[in-house]
Amino acid sequence: MKQERVSFENDYNTGCHPHLLKALEETNALFTTGYGHDEFSEEARNLIKKACLAPEAMVQFVMGGTQANIIACVAGLKPWQGVLSADTGHINVHETGAIEAAGHKVLVTPSNDGIIDPDAIDQLCRAHYEDPSVEHTVQPGMIYVSLTSELGTIFSLDTLKALRRAANNWNLILYVDGARLASALTSEAATITLPDLAKYADMFTIGGTKCGALFGEALVVTKDDLKNNLRYMIKQRGGMLAKGRLLGVQFRELFRDDLYYEIGRHENRMACLLADRFKEHGYSLYTPPVSNQIFVIFKEEDEKKFKERAIFERWAVLPDQTCVCRFVTSYATTPDMITACFSGMQEDEFHVFQKRE
Amino acid sequence: MKQERVSFENDYNTGCHPHLLKALEETNALFTTGYGHDEFSEEARNLIKKACLAPEAMVQFVMGGTQANIIACVAGLKPWQGVLSADTGHINVHETGAIEAAGHKVLVTPSNDGIIDPDAIDQLCRAHYEDPSVEHTVQPGMIYVSLTSELGTIFSLDTLKALRRAANNWNLILYVDGARLASALTSEAATITLPDLAKYADMFTIGGTKCGALFGEALVVTKDDLKNNLRYMIKQRGGMLAKGRLLGVQFRELFRDDLYYEIGRHENRMACLLADRFKEHGYSLYTPPVSNQIFVIFKEEDEKKFKERAIFERWAVLPDQTCVCRFVTSYATTPDMITACFSGMQEDEFHVFQKRE
Amino acid sequence: MKQERVSFENDYNTGCHPHLLKALEETNALFTTGYGHDEFSEEARNLIKKACLAPEAMVQFVMGGTQANIIACVAGLKPWQGVLSADTGHINVHETGAIEAAGHKVLVTPSNDGIIDPDAIDQLCRAHYEDPSVEHTVQPGMIYVSLTSELGTIFSLDTLKALRRAANNWNLILYVDGARLASALTSEAATITLPDLAKYADMFTIGGTKCGALFGEALVVTKDDLKNNLRYMIKQRGGMLAKGRLLGVQFRELFRDDLYYEIGRHENRMACLLADRFKEHGYSLYTPPVSNQIFVIFKEEDEKKFKERAIFERWAVLPDQTCVCRFVTSYATTPDMITACFSGMQEDEFHVFQKRE
Amino acid sequence: MKQERVSFENDYNTGCHPHLLKALEETNALFTTGYGHDEFSEEARNLIKKACLAPEAMVQFVMGGTQANIIACVAGLKPWQGVLSADTGHINVHETGAIEAAGHKVLVTPSNDGIIDPDAIDQLCRAHYEDPSVEHTVQPGMIYVSLTSELGTIFSLDTLKALRRAANNWNLILYVDGARLASALTSEAATITLPDLAKYADMFTIGGTKCGALFGEALVVTKDDLKNNLRYMIKQRGGMLAKGRLLGVQFRELFRDDLYYEIGRHENRMACLLADRFKEHGYSLYTPPVSNQIFVIFKEEDEKKFKERAIFERWAVLPDQTCVCRFVTSYATTPDMITACFSGMQEDEFHVFQKRE
Q: How far is C119 from chain D (nearest CA, A)?
């Protein structure tokens, strides 16, 4: 039966972490003012600024990730500018052209691992400015990079610094989409911290939805001239929640006792466990399993077998007709769910096609 | 002290109705798929279609009212069209130009009571099509009307029918913004029902945020060619909630046992009580108190007195320098709050200036 | 017969001034580079900067007035800002929502004479910034004012200075649409010169289309941070002419020997003559006849009589059912055309209805 | 000296064909109504419809190619749709993001010869509709293909039919950008005629600017529901010329006695001659020389030599560091210019590097 399959479909298929639910219950009957001017939001903003070691930063909460990306791009770009992104970037492939609908081209560079290459940025910008008909092409204005990436990968502090240098060289805004930042910051491979992001990026988001909240992203802005008027932009783009306190209450909880990191570590531990089990059974991973998304390479028969036990997405079909399947863990994933994923499978059912070859 | 004042600031300054909170708690740990494809959302959609007597309608949930308005306008308008609205309409004054940012002009007509006049629509459209340079002006494409209006008023079934006729005459989409629909439908003055809206409007929203939910609006579409592809539009405009079930769970609760109507009636009762108290003390109301927003005319000294006891908004300053103050009730308003609003005021403190005159 | 009627329909119903035509012929076979990088354009830009006493200004040519207005608004406004305009402003009524299609609201203030009132700007801006929910409304970002106005009026140097003060007070860009600038600068009532515009406005256009050219507007930008990147904006909005030299050749001619002023003076003289004739015959003018557009008040029967002799537009119908008709003169208007407008009319045919009253 | 070099920079570096200039002179003093409602425009529209064997088509003139592309895309696409283009397509690379500024993503497919592959369209559309999260990606809505392409190539009638089939299969508008259509239709390799375009495309342009006119493109629309309201779109996007007759006069001339074809043939003949000369001297062409743009592969030293004699653009640098240079012919190109391009070069100066290898 459908309900009995364990779900690794994504990290937004339950409600929220019990601590957040409790906080929402406890504050439910209180009267506050709207639109994020409440005390919970204020406290949450302060906790985030403290965690970022960035007392001067501006923090604003919005409801969802697409909204955050739209707002960041519109606020950061001039009308004739575009945003640089890896071809796999969420803004390029999975937001129904939201950035273009807001008037801006996504300038893509190819990427194998989901992370935009600082050298590719240099090349693209140099080519732009060397073109004698420079004004006939879109001016690069912003770098978009997601952490973790859409392929579950993370980039290093060195890469972050290189992106900053590229941004400085070409007068670009550096924006980091942290929809899954909890997982990225607590990865065993992580070299980037929240204060690093605050130091090197001009804007970034701290994702709530995929990190244990019901919904919500914190948009952190460190570049001064992007701070003013940001709330106009949020309101105009439909990102300002009337009951803004809901975001405040949740982010306060996430950042009060490092729950955000705890959730990230849990997600990663579960993903690691799952990856190990796949590897034990001889499966290859498409990208290194460093965060809460793991990408397993299946032959079609394998996929079918696992589909009987678990819910997950097919991500891509490779040229050799094997397919890449994505398994995502969340605050709600348990070791039992991982066991269930492999339950009752006979040893000879694993990796059926590979073995025969 | 600030906290001790009772709040009539708006209808979104608490969490949600206890029944909804309970339902969110009970379903919190369940795994479902995302983006509104879950069973709760499906059930909620069906309940709404049933309540509308509109089995063929399309129902989609979005996070907020500005989003709903953007999506409705972009989905319903051609690129060269504008949306007709009373000058007081929310899309014209309080959404930071969201409709224009989506490419469309708001074509305003003056209104005293917050409701667009069907005759004014006729005139504006006739003038447009009689202009020999017709293509030099924005083509009217949609009627926007809010129920209740931004001035707390409601319109009658006759007006709804007249709007439908105007829409038919001039090939306009008729869209009703029902952010406060619970209050409108249950007003003692109400002549419009949900099935009426489904019958006469092409699109309308059933507001959740201001009617007891944490957040969320149901967008109901009855016109066939607006149904297809609506979800693309919702996603593109940042209105599609990853944990879409949160909307499903809440609207299921609102429409399972007529809780939506119960909340509306409660809001209206409290508003009535409050209006009566003001009238008893000799205050005039700016618009008839038929819904959960009442607009009291104060001299500045009156406003000050009440500000000591209650939180409310100054809406406008009239030419005679009196000011119009808005008091809003919600599912959480209690009779005690109304009492507290007048508590300890001596008889001679009421309406201080008027009396002296 | 249609062709025999003299035309006062507008100032763009012939080709171009013979001097310009000659210059186009003489340069037709020469090879130049495109997009305004040619020597004619360079020379024209220099002549204009000289005429403006503004060596630091940036001058760019675009094909038409709507384009110029779009480009000015998009270049000068932030995404959350709107442009202030008199309700009669061209951008508000006769550009099919071009500004909104570019994402910006036109914030209108009522005007009787087609000129935005500096005090109304102050009030609107003050109201905006005093609103505690400031970010829920569109931020004023630019002043749009046309010279001459759409009602044929012009404003004084004092008003220009007052607009500059308002712009400074509220951090607004001041943009002057000079589609009919030749007429405005050479009006007998004129107190504003080109150098004044360059001194007090941040951007303005010097209209070609309605001042003797085949087409084309010169966009003059004096504010430094609006200069950079303007050509990107022009290209993106379809305003960059491949054979840009056509604009250069024409504007060079217009500004080489003060032909621009000569054309303006001719237009105004013809308009004056026409106005005098109407006044002689007892007609009232809706606005003072200070430029090349005059607005005559007709009863319907009058309009009919004149329609037999001349082509002109009905501009508006007044509450008393008289109508305002617009007569426009151009470089091509001759005294004979004015005579023909009244030719063969018996004295008792003039102003037929008024006399009977 | 700069002026003495012959120019193959592009096909818009002179004025217009003498016949057009003469017609503009002859009609210059006539009074007509504006915005394309004049008799010249009417006649030109009829001539074009006749040449297309498409009496039911709608023909509208706009000032430039970028405008035409913006208008076609906005008119043909729904807000959630994107336009399919070869990666080399003009709308993708050389219009400063004009299409995105109008709200639409350009969905690119790789192309070696500048022509979008009908099979690639099929694949992209199939992948879109097979995606279970279909609404998270941009819906394909239109095919953009240029004829001639940006690489000087042309496609066959078979390809046009295949594009039509793809359009039918996936409910796409088929739009052909004919900025250089004169050259394409008269190419020795041509298999497509104007009536073919009218039969298989939903919209296409007949370029004037690059085919002997001062400026202007005819937008031909054959699909019924794209015809209505198109003029609103043209006005809104700044594409409606006040003195619209200038477009009418020119296109009337181009289509009265097949001058359009004559110009195309001349352009092609000159290009052929030039290509032959390059081939004689051992140079390779990057794409087949079938139209008025030819792309020669140079080593840097070759480029330098030719730069002394001619003006042309470097188009691209190939991986082996040779560069592709573009030579464009126009109605004004003469055999003498071609001779001059090679004048005084010693035999051993040609292809200097290749020979040494």
A: 31
Q: Half-sphere exposure (CA, 13 Å, Cβ side) for C177?
A: 31
Query: Does D80 contact A94 at a Cβ distance shorter than 8 Å?
Result: no
Please give the CATH number for the structural domain made up of B18-257: 3.40.640.10
CB neighbour list of residue B124: distance below 8 Å, 6 or more residues apart:
B84, B107, B109, B140
pTM of the predicted structure, to 2 decimals: 0.96
| Topology agreement, domain D2-12+263-356 and domain D18-259 | no
Beta-carbon separation of B80 and C103 below 8 A: no
Q: How far is CA A12 from CA A16, A92, A275, C321, in A?
A: 9, 21, 20, 65
The CA dihedral of A77, A80, A85, A91, to the nearest 10 degrees, is 70
Are C97 and D27 a contacting pair at CB < 8 A?
A: no
Of the candidates A334, A332, A340, A328, the residue with the CA atom closest to the CA atom of residue A10: A328
Backbone angles phi, psi at D65, to 5 degrees: -70, -40
The nearest alpha carbon in chain D to A95 belongs to D136
Chain C closest-CA separation from residue B99 CA (Å)? 8
Compute the half-sphere exposure of residue C165: CA atoms within 13 Å on the CB side of its CA. 11
Q: Does B84 touch chain A (CB under 8 A)?
A: no
Q: Which amino acid is at C220?
A: V
Contact across the interface for C18 and D28, Cβ inside 8 Å = yes
Per-residue model confidence (pLDDT) at position C351:
67
Topology (CATH) of D2-12+263-356: Aspartate Aminotransferase, domain 1 (3.90.1150)
Per-residue pLDDT at B355 exceeds 60: no
> In terms of Cα–Cα distance, which of B121, B116, B76, B118 is closest to B99?
B76
Contact A177, A147 (CB under 8 A): yes
Please count the other Cβ atoms lying within 10 Å of the Cβ belonging to residue A20.
Answer: 26
Rounded to 5 degrees, φ, ψ at C177 are: -85, 105
CATH class of B2-12+260-356: alpha beta
pLDDT of residue B357: 44
Q: Please choose, from the candidates D28, D22, D71, D37, the residue with its C-alpha nearest in 3D space to the C-alpha of residue D227.
A: D71
Count the Cβ atoms, other than its own, within 10 Å of residue D303: 17
- Structural domain boundaries in chain C: 2-12+260-356, 18-257
Taking 70 as the pLDDT cut, the residues of chain A under it are 1-3, 351-357
Q: How confident is residue C177, by pLDDT bands cut at 50, 70 and 90? A: very high
CA distance B162 to chain A (A): 31
The first and second tokens of residue D86, run together, are 């070869």
Give D308-320 pLDDT, tens digit per residue: 999 999 999 999 9
Contact B117, B88 (CB under 8 A): no
What's the CA gap between C267 and C287, in Å, rounded?
A: 17
Let me know if domain D18-259 sits in CATH 3.40.640.10: yes
CA distance C260 to D225: 44
Q: Cβ contact (<8 Å) for A238 and B67?
A: yes
Note whether D2 contacts B: Cβ–Cβ < 8 A: no
- Cα distance between residue C234 and residue C226, in whole Å: 12
